[in-house]
Amino acid sequence: MDRVAIITGAARGIGAATALMAASRGYAVCVNYLRSEAAARGVVEKIQAGGGKAIAVAADVAKEADVVRLFETVDWELGTVTALVNNAGILERQMRVEAMDAGRIRRVLDTNVVGSFLCAREAVRRMSVNRGGKGGSIVNVSSGAARLGSPDEYIDYAASKGAVDSMTVGLSKEVAAEGIRVNAVRPGLVITDIHASGGEPGRVERMKGSVPLGRGGMPEEVAHAILWLLSDEASFVTGAFIDVSGGR
Ligand code: NAD
């Protein structure tokens, strides 16, 4: 079976590392991006330079019509999706709950939760053997925040990842008999640009003392866990979580 992967939010960070690693393992890769067209094209060019197959597709995962178009584009250009990585995610400026307004909370939930649901829906519609599909694998990129709660920083973000965890458990059971595995990784402090969105680019450096392994993680270290969960090596693994967090 030709392997086709859609990685959301793959222009940089964990998503870009996952896209590059997936291509090196033989997947045709859709590099989804929100606005960073040049960066997404850069990832595609790197994949193509290594002999792989990839396309870049702009889509806001929080918008239903965009998600539908994203999956249709992949149908036409790469073939039926066999692997989905729900990686796109946002957080906003660090603040206590008492300072948050509804707009901010909705933006975080829209991308992290609604976006993951919509992409999972489109993937299941194509992968389910009950619908004529050939099965597949979904990996949700949650966060250690789902366990830790992120007090004084972004409890809205932590709660959105808690919802992603519940979706992982429920969906894994719902589609297990249809040839689809659903798992999640929970990264800890990983060195990417996401921390700047919270207003603290140096957050990993400040907090690394709280990590038993004594450092922040690299995006590739998360990508390794994602690629394993996607692979046939994880054929008996569903509804599972891998904490890629240095022990934190
Ligand atoms: P990042 O900010 O570098 O990457 C996130 C990507 O998602 C960006 O390219 C962004 O443009 C894209 N994106 C945001 N909203 C989108 C939307 N609506 N539609 C499509 N794309 C969208 O950060 P990252 O650290 O690589 O984060 C990747 C995932 O890992 C996120 O889900 C994040 O919550 C999770 N995570 C990161 C860390 C960490 O320490 N870096 C820890 C735990 C979990």
Unreliable spans: none
Distance between the termini: 38 Å
Helix content: 40-55%
Shape: globular
Question: Major sheet: size, sense and barrel closure?
Answer: 7 strands, parallel
Write the H/E string, N to C: EHEHEHEHEHHEHHHE
Question: Number of helical segments?
Answer: 9
Cα-atom radius of gyration: 17 Å
- Estimate the mean pLDDT confidence: 98
Number of strands: 7
Largest sheet: spatial strand order: 3-2-1-4-5-6-7
Q: And the CATH topology?
A: Rossmann fold
* CATH class membership: Alpha Beta
In total, the number of domains comes to 1
**CATH architectural name:** 3-Layer(aba) Sandwich
Provide structural commentary.
The chain is α/β, with parallel strands linked by helices and 248 residues long. The protein has one domain (4-244): NAD(P)-binding Rossmann-like Domain (Rossmann fold, 3-Layer(aba) Sandwich). 44% of the residues lie in helices and 15% in strands. It contains 9 helices and 7 strands, in the order βαβαβαβαβααβαααβ. It has helices at 13-24, 37-49, 64-77, 102-127, 145-148, 155-174, 194-197, 203-207, 219-230, and strands at 4-7, 28-33, 54-58, 83-86, 136-141, 180-187, 241-244. The chain has a 7-stranded parallel sheet with strand order 3-2-1-4-5-6-7, with helices on both faces. Strand 2 (28-33), helix 2 (37-49) and strand 3 form a beta-alpha-beta unit. Helix 4 (102-127) packs parallel to helix 6 (155-174). The longest helix has 26 residues, at 102-127.
